Amino acid sequence: MSLVVKSSLLNKVDGSAEVEIGRTKLVASVSGPIEPRSRQELPNSASLEIIVRPAVGVSTTREKLIEDKLRSLLQNVIIRHKYPRQLIQIVIQFLVTEDTNNYSITESQKQKLTSIELNAAINACYFALVDANIALYYSFSSVCICANSSIEEDNLKVNPDMKDLAVSRSHHVISYGITHSSSYNVLLIESQGDFSEDEFLKLLDASGDLCKSLHDEQRSHIESKIKKEFIWKQ
Amino acid sequence: MSEEDMPGIVIPGDDININLGESKTTAGPGIYKNPRNQEIIPTTAGYLNVRQNKANTQNLIYIDSNSKRYIPQVNDLVIGIITGVLGESYKVQLQDHSTNLLLSMTAFPNATKKNRPNLRVGQAVYARVSQADPNIDAEVECFDATTGKDGGFGLLDESGYIFDVNLNFARDLLFNQNSPFLEKLATRCRFEIAIGMNGKIWLKCGDGVKAREADSSSTQENANGNTDKSALIKNLKTTLAAAKYLTRCQSISADQVDEELRAAFKSI
Predict the structure, then answer these.
(1) Which among B41, B45, B257 has the least Cβ separation from residue A222?
(2) Most buried of A32, A168, A179, B161 (most Cβ within 10 A)?
(3) CA-CA distance, B215 to B217, in Å (whole number)?
(4) 3-state secondary structure (DSSP) of residue B176
(5) Under CATH, what is the fold of the domain B77-156?
(6) Which of B12, B169, B252 sits opposite A136 (nearest CB)?
(7) Which CATH architecture has domain B161-264?
(8) Where are the beta strands (DSSP E) in chain B?
(9) Where's the K Homology domain (chain B) (predicted)?
(10) In this complex, do A133 and B41 lie within 8 Å of one another by their Cβ atoms?
């Protein structure tokens, strides 16, 4: 997996991370817990405000969809009861996304193909949340996989590009929560295309291993970040 | 309490894997007990510290991690800036753009309804967080609750210099008795310091900085003659050098401290 991470790069927010996966690059920032607007306030837990901004142009329904998927994942991971009546604001700004002009992909097709961005956003959120010291139940990571003719190991493509997505028979974003660095539970599945149950179960297994190896990468990155923050102790 | 060997780094979801046994355990920052299954989990990434008292009857676990936002906790020692008055209380800010805390006008030594402290907006106080329930406004107070005396709390005078450091560094300076940074600084100058767990440090070297600008007209009011003025400039320089030294200490390893101290005090 090619994952390039730079965290704590923004100094006006509580946590931030810049993540580069394949040809997609984005910055995630987390501010919180902060004072919410009164309509956002929840009496016994933190509310989440998630804003996704595209690399080009203004946000559309496509970004709203990503926001919604992200929220469904994050609200189960953040220990929201620790921050009653507070707001956690997460902003995802895409810097580089796949240039669809190079492929023969129509605008309406592009509207549906959000997997690459969603996958990158989930992974970036993890680093930003850890950087902001927001309480989490467990770590999480996500992979984007597309399957071509039939789902067998060699036919899977991890971290596909836009073109792969457009021609694939099915593509999936699968996100796992990882506890005790070995066991994991599914947090989010986003699938599009044709696939059978058998194929899908195989895919879940494969993605579990991928998420776990991603988790090891997350750990080594966070360890080096913490060591840097506590450098004066060594 | 005896300390176990070098703490390891944990991230959310890790198994903290400690045998708590029958002894009473106190969970500190970064540790959460899931009310559903009573599982004890780490919620933030940082150094896991497990301490045990000698009789093995009490444990303390917490995770030491850095964050940018300060969340008030009861008994934290903080430096706050007065931002306004609200009825019988002052509004106090602990970080830029953060929610205000309340400092009651009667929360000072010997203060009564009639005998109130006279603080102005912009002045800084050293205070203790007395109430930090997330459901209501947090409160601070400026006296030692056990003795009722001032106990080092109260107004920080304007001859000191306030600057920001990382929260983890501030905690270490305040609580780690083996911390070398202040001892080393003491070899170079005489100083008075107040460290807030909200990442603010108030520092006064020598007699402090009496006027905001060393060469403005206000200098004449405080300083009488040239000798005082040069002493004033020296104090100002020393304060700034010490602040620079402490700020730099956050990003260097322990063996570079001497070098950094020399560099900061080079021109004095």
Answers:
(1) B45
(2) A32
(3) 7
(4) coil
(5) OB fold (Dihydrolipoamide Acetyltransferase, E2P) (2.40.50)
(6) B12
(7) 2-Layer Sandwich (3.30)
(8) 2-3, 9-10, 24-27, 31-33, 40-42, 46-52, 58-64, 77-86, 89-93, 101-104, 124-131, 139-141, 154-156, 161-164, 191-195, 200-205
(9) 160-207
(10) no
pLDDT in tens, B166-199: 999 999 999 998 889 999 999 999 999 999 999 9
- Rg from Cα positions in chain A: 18
Cβ-Cβ contacts under 8 Å between A and B: the total is 104
Q: Is A116 helix (H, G, I), strand (E, B) or coil?
A: helix
* ipTM of predicted complex: 0.88
CATH architecture of the domain formed by B2-64? Beta Barrel (2.40)
- Pick from A51, A59, A54: which is nearest to A26 by CA? A54
pLDDT digit string, tens, across residues B7-33:
789 999 998 867 666 778 888 999 998
Locate A213 and state its tokens: 């190896």
Could you give the strand order of the β-sheet that contains A170-179, starting from the edge strand earlier in sequence? A156-158, A139-147, A170-179, A183-193
Give the gap in angstroms from C-alpha B51 to the nearest C-alpha of chain A.
Answer: 18
Whether residues B14 and A181 touch (CB distance < 8 A) is answered with: yes
User: H or E element: which one contains A141?
Assistant: strand A139-147
CATH of the domain at A208: 3.30.230.70
Do B13 and A180 lie within an 8 Å CB cutoff?
Answer: yes
CA angle B234, B235, B238 (to 5 degrees): 85
The β-bridge partners of A89 are A31, A49
Contact A14 B67 (CB under 8 A): yes
Looking at the DSSP bridge assignments, the partners of residue A78 are: A136
Please, where in chain B does CATH 3.30.1370.10 lie? 161-264
Which residues constitute the domain of residue A143? Answer: 3-233
Helix (H, G, I), strand (E, B) or coil at B69: coil
Residue A105 DSSP label: -
CA distances for B91 relative to A36, A142, B98, B190, B249, angstroms: 19, 44, 12, 33, 32
Residue A64 phi, psi (nearest 5): -60, -40
Q: How many domains, in total, are found in chain A? A: 1
Task: Name the nearest CA neighbour of B134 among A88, A45, A31.
Answer: A45
Residues of B in contact with A135 (CB under 8 A): 12, 30, 32, 43-44
pLDDT digits (tens, 9 = 90+) for A77-134: 999 999 999 999 999 999 998 876 666 777 777 888 899 999 999 999 999 999 999 9
> How many residues does the structure list for chain A?
234
Cβ proximity of B193 and B203 under 8 Å: yes
